[in-house]
Design the sequence.
């Protein structure tokens, strides 16, 4: 949100969704009471450096970063805010003075601070811990608003994928060394991620709908939500039907993998070098955000199927949601709202989600480079729609070759890592086609993301025959880029060699 828009909010004064704190002598003691009240009610805008009379008093610049660090750490401390919640304070300048602005979305859970529950009305924050009827009404409101919290009391740990627990621990550790999930058993992990809850209105407790979508076995997911799927379609040549399709009906972790692989298979890539001199794969950056939005910000109980459709001149997505507004989204003046906070929180822990609102900003920022100045369209309504223009009409053909320059190889995971993988592929693929190079890229990217991949996993990702995948794997093994570890095809898997890992460092 622009400083001009925030200044307008300040001038309207405090209310149920706006709170000012001067913070002249440190962070105020009641700061986290307001945070919890906003989380429990409708969300809101919190300004530090503004007094109760709308006067912008500012905060000393030397204190800004220290305050921001304190807020981020404390909000993630379950002893202070329970359940913890990720906040993204921003340093903004209005009327020449420095402020801290925090947008706090409505949470799907009821939060407390120091053991006390607060709610919000026009008069500010009020303590409701001893008001059982008010607390029950608050829990009921959350259950009705956020279907991700629906409890299924008969679900058991055996209904979830053991291999996914192994994988998400690795991803969490890659995102944050010494992640607490590494020391937890599976049930403790689920509780930590708010995927096992108690309904204080009914007394029911168990695994949630979000837990099922993230980690459930396919048969369990289809039993609970039979209409759930994400349809990936390529429609360039055959406009009446499709040229290629992936009907994705699995958990959200692997759904992301398959949708990204579909995009990599059919769309060209470009690179962008930012001020930090890091090369970014524009395809990866943009469609990471698009796919996370498609998977994480939808209403899963509605039978409307989510879609990702690649056409000759654009990529469009559609998914059902509970809108907080209607119409086209302005990236500079919009209030981000997460439709499934616990799913978003889980994605953040494994490194697939950043701060709320950053996805929209990244889509607008990088699409103009990917699409030769054209802008994306994001339209919120009962059906949330995204449209990404494609400047180059060349797509990777299913049978033939893609006439894309070889320097675009290397972007499957973006940045320096994508460049290193691309360089390794160029070293071993002199004279081979672009199509084969893309296969090498996809294999190395998949193994880098989750070492221990088995041949069937790679067949599923690349959509090729077992004979073809064995040929690609043999070339990569002989080049010293991957190796097989294990006693058999059933228990073993493919890993990057030390040679390949050295290229990534």
Sequence:
């Amino acid at each position: 949100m622009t400083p001009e828009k925030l200044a307008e909010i300040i001038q309207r004064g405090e209310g149920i969704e706006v709170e000012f704190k001067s913070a002249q002598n440190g962070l105020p003691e009641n700061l986290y009471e307001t945070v919890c009240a906003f989380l429990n009610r409708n969300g809101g805008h919190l300004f530090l450096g503004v007094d109760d009379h709308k006067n912008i008093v500012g905060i000393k610049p030397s204190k800004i970063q220290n305050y921001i660090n304190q807020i981020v750490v404390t909000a993630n401390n379950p002893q202070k805010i329970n359940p913890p919640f990720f906040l993204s304070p921003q340093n903004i300048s209005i009327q020449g003075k420095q402020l801290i602005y925090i947008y706090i979305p409505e949470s799907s859970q009821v939060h407390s601070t120091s053991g006390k529950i607060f709610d919000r009305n026009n008069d500010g924050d009020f303590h409701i811990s001893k008001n059982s009827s008010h607390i029950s009404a608050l829990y009921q409101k959350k259950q009705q608003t956020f279907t991700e919290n629906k409890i299924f009391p008969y679900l058991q740990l055996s209904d979830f994928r053991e291999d996914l627990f192994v994988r998400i621990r690795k991803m969490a550790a890659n995102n944050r060394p010494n992640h607490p999930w590494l020391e937890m058993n599976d049930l403790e992990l689920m509780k930590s991620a708010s995927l096992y809850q108690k309904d204080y209105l009914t007394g029911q407790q168990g695994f949630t709908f979000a837990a099922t979508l993230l980690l459930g076995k396919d048969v369990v997911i289809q039993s609970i939500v039979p209409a759930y799927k994400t349809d990936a379609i390529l429609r360039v040549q055959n406009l009446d039907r499709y040229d290629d399709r992936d009907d994705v009906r699995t958990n959200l972790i692997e759904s992301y993998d398959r949708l990204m692989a579909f995009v990599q298979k059919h769309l060209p890539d470009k690179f962008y070098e930012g001020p930090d001199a890091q090369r970014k794969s524009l395809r990866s950056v943009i469609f990471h955000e698009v796919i996370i939005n498609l998977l994480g910000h939808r209403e899963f109980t509605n039978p409307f199927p989510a879609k990702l459709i690649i056409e000759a001149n654009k990529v469009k997505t559609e998914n059902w949601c509970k809108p907080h507004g209607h119409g086209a989204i302005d990236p500079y003046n919009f209030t981000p709202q997460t439709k499934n906070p616990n799913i978003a929180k889980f994605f953040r822990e494994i490194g697939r989600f950043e701060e709320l609102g950053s996805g929209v900003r990244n889509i607008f920022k990088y699409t103009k480079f990917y699409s030769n100045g054209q802008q994306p369209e994001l339209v919120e309504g009962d059906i949330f729609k995204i449209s990404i223009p494609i400047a180059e009409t060349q797509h990777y053909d299913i049978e033939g070759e893609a006439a894309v320059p070889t320097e675009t190889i290397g972007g499957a995971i973006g940045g320096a890592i994508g460049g290193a993988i691309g360089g390794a592929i160029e070293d071993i693929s002199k004279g081979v086609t672009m199509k084969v190079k893309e296969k090498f890229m996809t294999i190395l990217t998949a193994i880098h993301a989750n070492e221990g991949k088995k041949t069937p996993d790679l067949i599923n990702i690349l959509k090729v025959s077992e004979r073809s995948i064995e040929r690609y794997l043999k070339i990569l093994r002989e080049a010293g880029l991957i190796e097989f570890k294990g006693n058999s095809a059933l228990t073993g898997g493919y890993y990057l060699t030390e040679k390949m890992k050295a290229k990534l460092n």
